[in-house]
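SAMPLE LOG
Freezer: B-3
Tube label: C17
Construct: single chain, 68 aa
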Amino acid sequence: MGVGLTLRKLRSKTKYSQQDIGDLLAIDRNTYANWENEKTDVKSEFIPKLAKIYDVKINELFEEEIEK
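STRUCTURE (predicted):
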């Protein structure tokens, strides 16, 4: 499982939309959608921000299974 699937699972647990996350990160919704679909890689500057939004540790974004 890649980071994109992890992001999708975390987002579905929080009930955020892709637009909500895009707004929180000040990026276009399509950029975030491309991350979830693994069409593009998440830029390193956004990784700590994503961890904070989803209330997880950074390494949890890269784990195979999400237990929360």
